[in-house]
Structures are given as C-alpha cells and as structure tokens.
C-alpha cells in the first residue's frame, strides 16, 4: 500500500510504501515519549520525499547515528533515519494522511535501547521489500 503524509504546516510531504498489516512501535524513550512518535520502519527505497527538503532541520544526539528530521516551520518530526535501521526510514504514523488499516501497535522499550535494538533489525528486511 502507498501512504502519503506531511508535517503539520504541509511544507514537507512524503509517501511511503508499507504493508496494510503493519507492525508499529510505540517507544518509551525520552524523545519518542515526549513527541508522541509512532514508528513505521521501512527500507529507504520504500520512502519518497515529495517536497520540502529545504524545510528540514536535523537533530542528532547520543551516538549521532540517528538523524531526526524536523520541519523548521512547524516543528513536527514526520520521519527520521533510525539508529536501529540506518539503512531505512522511520515514519511517524501520526503524520500519515490515512494510517494502515490493520496496523498493530506494539510496545518497544527504548529506555533500555541497547538491550532491545536487535528486535528492530528485521524491519528493513521485510519480505514485501526483498525484490525492491
């Protein structure tokens, strides 16, 4: 399925290909909990930034591997490059026009990231995307 999304002010628009029956992580780490981020992790080839690249600002912390992209106008983080899957893109489901109909929200213990990051490694290796 192809899903479209944006930041709040619509300066940044994107589309993402994902399964209709997608597993979505609800992470309890500080940045995700504070921003209300719901994670849909996909391979980079399944994500397309349609407009607004010049409106993106980047925030890095801790290891500096993850690249958090925010809209410089409205402050919303519609997607980022996750530390757990640097070969993919992590889309905020709350920024999609219409979320996957059969999404399954699972809890992820990001407060203890080092112990749990391996549980996300398969996200950019999904069978849906193997032939991409």
Summarize this entry quickly:
With 132 residues, the protein is mostly beta strands. It has one domain (2-123): Metal Binding Protein, Guanine Nucleotide Exchange Factor, Chain A (Beta Complex), CATH 2.170.150.70.
What attributes does this structure have?
single chain, 132 residues, mainly beta, Metal Binding Protein, Guanine Nucleotide Exchange Factor, Chain A, 7-stranded mixed β-sheet, 3-stranded antiparallel β-sheet, 2 helices, 10 strands, 8% helix, disordered C terminus
This entry's quaternary arrangement is single chain
User: For the largest beta sheet, what order do the strands appear in spatially?
Assistant: 6-7-8-9-4-3-10
CATH top-level class: Mainly Beta
Q: How many DSSP E strands?
A: 10
Structural class: mainly beta
């Amino acid at each position: 399925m192809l899903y479209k999304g944006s930041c709040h002010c619509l300066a940044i628009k994107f589309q993402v290909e994902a399964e209709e029956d997608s597993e979505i992580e609800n992470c309890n780490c500080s940045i995700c909990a504070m921003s209300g981020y719901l994670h849909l992790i996909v391979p980079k080839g399944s994500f397309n930034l349609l407009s607004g690249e010049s409106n993106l600002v980047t925030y890095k912390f801790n290891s500096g591997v993850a690249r958090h992209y925010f809209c410089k106008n409205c402050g919303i983080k519609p997607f980022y490059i996750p530390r757990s899957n640097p070969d993919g893109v992590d889309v905020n489901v709350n920024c999609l026009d219409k979320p996957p109909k059969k999404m399954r929200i699972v809890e992820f213990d990001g407060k203890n990231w080092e112990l749990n990051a391996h549980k996300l490694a398969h996200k950019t290796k999904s069978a849906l995307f193997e032939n991409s």
